[in-house]
Amino acid sequence: MRGYVLTRYGGPDAMELRDLAEPQPGPGDVRIRVAAAGLNPVDFKLREGGLRPISPFRLPVVAGCEVAGTVDVVGPGPSRFAVGDRVYARVDKRRLGAFAEFVCVQQELVAAMPASIGFAEAAGLPLAGLTALQALRDELDVGPGTRLFIAGGAGGVGTLAIQLAKHFGAEVATTASARGEALVRRLGADRIIDYTREDFAGALQDFDAVLDLVVGATLEKSFRILRPGGRVVSIAGVPEPLTATKDLDAPPWVTAAFWVMSLGIRRRARKAKTSYRYLFMHPSGDGLRFLATLVDAGQLQPVVDSSYPFDRIAEAFAALEQGRAKGKIVVTF
Ligand SMILES: NC(=O)c1ccc[n+]([C@@H]2O[C@H](COP(=O)([O-])OP(=O)(O)OC[C@H]3O[C@@H](n4cnc5c(N)ncnc54)[C@H](OP(=O)(O)O)[C@@H]3O)[C@@H](O)[C@H]2O)c1
User: Ligand 1 centre and the CA of 241: distance in Å?
Assistant: First the structure.
């Protein structure tokens, strides 16, 4: 089979298309014939090596975090899936393997994909959708009337976070440039601030919660728009001790390192009588079942920025690394 392989840590040429043996499913696995796979910034962050302390791999490894496709073989043991089922998954963080014609995934990370959409749309849902769900529902307790600011509403995570937050009943303000404004409006954002023209920190106040999706200065400014008791969850800022103990199976030195790295931002949160959390999303079949129900009920719409044939995956990565995607970039087989 063909696979896109991380051969070493480095720039774009550290990944290459190779012919590989097909993976064989172990007990509790299903093997998925991949129809489409989603690209995510974490794919190039892994390639660059910055995540090595928390996500070490023995290279070479087939890259890729999320897929949609058809169950091709069921591994030994009891199974909730049958050959031919249309499924989607955020694959195991320690195994990866989504950028290939076949991938083996533990069944508890897999769910039936939404019946109302195609493979390309489904492939972009697992990682960004689970991230948005875990941040909004599990960390920020977003519910009816929550005044929520989403920093960066137009990308892969943002387009799903806006819709989920509206589904939970929140009032949503977000940032987008002129390139993304119409999109985030259509997805339900109540207030849109063009970050290239206006500083959200001067425009918003008394918010209950912030979901920070943007690398850079937005995180520090987020505390200025919160009421006392408000909460910030970031997925793009600085990891903190709970990230290590709750989200990662990390050794104590990682917790200590995150404690030191986040000292300034935690102090900033305390000063504003608010709280700060950095979330690393986790794969979850249950979460994907929840998202599929929403999609099929017409309450969550995947947004695909662009779709590339698998043999042009290097071009898809070049587009992703521009950082301008409106929704998700996917590759199809
Ligand atoms: N911790 C976790 O578990 C986790 C999970 C998923 C993602 N992440 C991280 O979260 C971040 C977002 O991921 P993603 O997949 O949504 O990325 P993405 O799709 O690549 O985001 C691109 C979008 O961000 C917008 N953007 C860029 N700079 C902005 C700014 N200063 N203010 C507002 N919008 C801005 C761009 O809009 P314009 O074209 O208008 O600039 C573009 O539409 C990445 O850093 C990713 O690594 C972390």
Answer: 23
| Mean pLDDT value of segment 295-308 | 98
pLDDT per position as a tens digit, 130-174: 999 999 999 999 999 999 999 999 999 999 999 999 999 999 999
Residue with tokens 């505390």: 223
Q: At what angle do helices 285-296 and 126-133 cross, to 10 degrees?
A: 100
27 contact partners, CB below 8 Å, separation of at least 6:
75, 76, 77
| CA proximity to 294, closest of 111, 172, 167 | 167
Which atom of ligand 1 approaches the CA of 157 most closely?
A: 16
User: How far apart are alpha carbons 282 and 2 in whole angstroms?
Assistant: 27
* Residues 98 and 34 sit within 8 Å (Cβ to Cβ): yes
| Site to substitute for ligand 1 among 235, 284, 306, 321, most atoms within 8 A of C-beta | 235
User: For the segment 24-35, what is each residue's pLDDT rounded down to a tens digit?
Assistant: 999 999 999 999
Instruction: Please say whether the beta carbons of 322 and 301 come within 8 A.
Output: no
> Which residue owns the Cα nearest ligand 1 atom 34?
152
CA of 213 to the centre of ligand 1 (A): 5
Ordered by where they begin, the domains of the chain are 2-125+302-332 (3.90.180.10), 128-278 (3.40.50.720)
Distance CA 91, CA 89 (A): 6
Which tokens belong to 144?
A: 């009816």
Residues with Cβ < 8 Å from 170, sequence gap 6 or more? 136, 142, 143, 144, 145, 146, 147, 148
Answer yes or no: is the C-beta of 40 below 6 A from any ligand 1 atom.
yes
CA distance 205 to 227: 7
DSSP 278-322: EPPP---HHHHHHHHHHHHTTS----EEEEEEGGGHHHHHHHHTT
Q: Is 303 in the pocket of ligand 1 (CB under 6 A)?
A: no
Residue nearest to atom 42 of ligand 1 (CA): 324
pLDDT tens track for 11-20:
999 999 999 9
